[in-house]
Write a structure and sequence with these properties.
The structure holds two protein chains of two kinds. By secondary structure, chain A is an alpha+beta fold. Helix content of chain A is 31%, strand content 32%. The chains are: A alpha+beta, B alpha+beta. The interface between A and B is medium-sized, with 13 and 16 residues. Chain A: This is Proteasome subunit beta.
Chain lengths: 204, 205
């Protein structure tokens, strides 16, 4: 089994009309055994910037702690929050620092940039950025997620429709992957509010 | 293979571990204490490589004491768990500790809590956790019978059920278990569950 499949994860982010949604599964496993069904994979950096970390849980936790540290330092020096594009470059740089001994994580970054324009991107474990206009996926269920998102996505969806679409895409994909699932965690972010919802799917 | 498991009840935490120290096919001793008392209100049950287990848990215990000496107040369970994870994570890519940890503690403000810390430093706060081959039996037993508001008697009954399963279904089952409890009155040994006693050692006159 690959080290990326040790804990199991599914992450997806989608762009809507002046909003974005980022969703993850909730399983923490150790290979075939499930340890927890409430494990958080999406972290808030600031009100308009979220990062999801797929892959090895220990590296996701370490990487998250390092990113929060860097962002807090940035906030103290610049007296403002980081833009999503800047944050994505920061994550990419941190990952490439460990080029020959990498963090086994695949991040999914989603945020609202200048004039609240939605921004999403993903990268591989050594920091190769992949910008997208519609959706990005990561984790052990990524292949299923690509298919589900490609067929369900429409551009310029409103917040409620975006939530429905991302939830259906996530739940149908994790049902085909034994290492991810046990519910879903969806964050819907508009310029004015952040809505966090827990999904109940197949608990197996 | 070593079994450690733990659970959290209404206002207490329990950690149980087997007590055999094994080296390949030889059982060195059957009364090895694998649950370190970190401070007055914390228990750290550990399983894994014997030397790493003893060294690492002692290192954490001494650092927890040092914090209390320097700052005059004890660490919270969450802080101790995160410190432990930090030490494991730093060592992971240099000289990893092959130790799996269940950390249970009681804080006055937040009550009992239990933390699962993998040997590769994955940290998660849980109500029940188990490591080792015994985990296949203990986790299933706990999934069936566990409730968040259990009393001590009910929890010990559940722990005994888990030990019964491990003894009857694991091919190389450890004979003896030690149970420790932590609640508002502190962390202490609760009971032994022995099926083999070491022969008493005669000393020189």
């Amino acid at each position: 089994m690959s080290i990326f499949e040790y804990n199991g994860s599914a992450l997806v982010a989608m762009v809507g009309k002046n909003c974005f949604a980022i969703a993850s599964d909730r399983r923490l496993g150790v290979q075939l055994q499930t340890i927890a069904t409430d494990f958080q994979k999406i972290y808030k950096i600031h009100d308009k910037l979220f990062i999801g970390l797929a892959g090895l849980a220990t590296d996701a936790q370490t990487l998250y702690q390092r990113l929060v540290f860097r962002h807090k330092l940035y906030q103290l020096r610049e007296e403002r929050d980081m833009k999503p594009e800047t944050f994505a470059s920061l994550v990419s740089a941190l990952l490439y620092e460990k080029r020959f001994g990498p963090y086994f994580c695949q991040p999914v970054i989603a945020g609202l940039g200048d004039e609240d324009k939605p921004f999403i991107c993903t990268m591989d474990s050594i920091g190769a950025k992949e910008l997208a206009k519609d959706f990005v996926v990561a984790g052990t269920a990524s292949e299923s997620l690509y298919g589900a998102c490609e067929s369900m996505f429409k551009p310029d969806m409103e917040a409620e429709e975006l939530f429905e679409t991302i939830s259906q895409a996530l739940l149908s994909s994790v049902d085909r992957d034994c290492l991810s699932g046990w519910g879903g965690h969806v964050y819907l972010v508009t310029p004015t509010e952040v809505t966090e919802r827990i999904l109940k799917g197949r608990m197996d | 293979m070593e079994s450690v498991f733990g659970l959290v009840g209404k206002d207490f935490g329990i950690v149980a571990a087997d007590t055999s120290a094994v080296h390949s096919i030889l059982v060195h001793k059957t009364n090895e204490d694998k649950i370190m008392v970190l401070d007055s209100h914390k228990l750290m049950g550990a399983s894994g490589e014997t030397g790493d287990r003893a060294q690492f848990t002692e290192y954490i215990q001494k650092n927890v004491s040092l914090y209390q000496f320097r700052n005059g107040i004890p660490l919270t369970t969450a802080a101790a768990a995160n410190f432990t994870r930090g030490e494991l994570a730093t060592a992971l890519r240099k000289n990893p500790y092959m130790v799996n940890i269940i950390l249970a503690g009681y804080d006055k403000e937040t009550g009992p809590s239990l933390y699962f810390i993998d040997y590769i430093a994955s940290l998660h706060k849980l109500d029940k956790a188990a490591f080792g081959y015994g985990s296949y039996f203990a986790l299933s037993m706990m999934d069936r019978h566990y409730r968040r508001d259990m009393t001590v008697e009910e929890a010990i009954e559940l722990v005994d059920k888990c030990i019964m399963e491990i003894r009857s279904r694991l091919v190389i089952a450890p004979p003896n278990f030690l149970i420790k409890i932590v609640d508002k009155d502190g962390a202490r040994e609760f009971a032994w569950r022995e099926s083999i006693k070491d022969a008493p050692v005669s000393t020189a006159a």
